[in-house]
Amino acid sequence: MSKKKRYIDNRDWKETNEKYVMRGYFYFNPEFLLFWNDELERMNAGKVGQPYLYPESMIKFLAVLHCKFDFRALGGFMRWLSETHNNFPVINFSQICRRYNALDIEFKVLEEDMKDYLLVGADGSGEKSSKRGGWMREQWRVKKGWIKVVIMGVKNSKEKKYVIDIRVANEALDERAATRGMVRKNHEHIGQFLGDGLHDNQDTFNLCEKYGIPTGIKLRDDCSTRTKSPRRKQEVRIYKSMPYKEWSREKQYGQRWPITEGIFSAVTRIFGDSVSATKKRNMYHEAKVKYWAYNLLQGVT
Q1: Binning pLDDT at 50, 70 and 90, where does residue 133 land?
Q2: Cα(88)–Cα(295) distance, integer angstroms
Q3: Of 3, 160, 166, 237, which has the most beta carbons under 10 Å away?
Q4: Co-location of 116 and 83 in the same domain
Q5: What is the pLDDT of residue 144?
Q6: The dihedral of CA 257, 262, 265, 267: what is its sign?
Q7: Residue 7 lies in a domain
Q8: Does the pLDDT value for residue 138 go beyond 70?
Q9: What residues make up the domain containing 84?
Q10: pTM score of the predicted model
Q11: Pick from 101, 120, 135: which residue ends a domain?
């Protein structure tokens, strides 16, 4: 019996500890108080109807905290903050909820990465539509359903990993079709597309061929050159011409995990794997907010 290699932890613990300390700094840093009046003046310029009372930056601040706390708790937090900081107008939980669900969040390529061709990976994962969803399914035979999340993650030249596009729907969402939609939208920035075996299909290969995008898609073990897609036929020949480990190194396939599965894992660890909203539209929005908040943690704004 071969002995297992002893794991050697090569992490820089000073840097790692600082990263987790700064996470707390990020959560509870109400910078919006510094620019409250100026931001409201800009938001209300030319606005018809009742003016905004609370700046957008405050709603975004609360949106991140909502990944951890419910709306009533956020209302209590803002009451305390008001009492200790010049008694600014206190927003109640129902107003927080309305502004949160109307919050316009976006995913895009960083300006510093616009001129680069990025290593891109796409994958899907499930999000629970309720914290008690599993119990309800088993005990009461209630099919609550899952939320399907498909992301397109990238890694830039500075080793920063973040999400540039996302699709959220019910569990019937076609992951391959959603991925092709994201490839079409972001093809100008894709230097190489990485995908698991689910993406081993002619449509995906043909789309990448159309935009001249190199691929690192894991092919089926029984893949054949008998295919109508010239690009897939070429990839099958390459795949079968070398051992799997060599192919993986050649295609940088190992990089797929940190920019897809790694992001899913991080979001689940930090923000949980379920949503608290009850309406479908709000459920999907809450799921998106988690990945938007993850990007903020990575310094992507």
Answers
A1: low
A2: 29
A3: 166
A4: no
A5: 63
A6: negative
A7: no
A8: no
A9: 13-101
A10: 0.88
A11: 101
Number of domains in the chain: 2
Of residues 86 and 84, more confidence is placed in 84
**137 and 71 assigned to the same domain:** no
Contact 151, 163 (CB under 8 A): yes
Q: Which of 101, 131, 156 is the last residue of a domain?
A: 101
Model confidence over 179-213: pLDDT tens digits? Answer: 999 999 999 999 999 999 999 999 999 999 999 99
Same-domain check for residues 115 and 94: no
Dig out the tokens for 49 from the structure: 């109807």
Q: Which token pair is 176?
A: 């391959």
87 and 45 in one domain? yes
Q: Is the predicted pLDDT of residue 215 greater than 80, yes or no?
A: yes
**CB 169, CB 148: distance < 8 Å:** yes
Residue 253 DSSP symbol: G
Contact 270, 292 (CB under 8 A): no
String of DSSP letters for 125-184: EEEESSTTHHHHHHHH-----EEEEEEEEEE-TT--EEEEEEEEEETT--HHHHHHHHHH
> pLDDT category, 12, cuts 50, 70, 90?
confident
- Predicted pLDDT at 263: 95
Q: Is residue 132 located within the same domain as residue 43?
A: no
- Kindly state whether residues 67 and 123 are assigned to the same domain: no
- 3 state SS of 43: helix
Residue 279 maps to a domain: yes
Same domain, 93 and 196: no
Q: Is residue 260 part of a domain?
A: yes
Q: Tell me which H or E stretch contains 291.
A: helix 280-297
Tell me how far the alpha carbon of residue 256 is from its chain's centroid: 14
For residue 187, list its beta bridge partners. none
Nearest to 38 by CA among 58, 64, 63: 58
**CA–CA separation, 54 vs 58, rounded Å?**
7
Could you tell me if 104 and 288 are in contact, meaning their C-beta atoms sit under 8 angstroms apart?
A: no
The verdict on 118 and 237 lying in the same domain is: yes
Give which of 22, 33, 20, 19 is closest to 62, Cα–Cα. 33
State the pLDDT confidence band at 96, using cuts at 50, 70 and 90.
very high
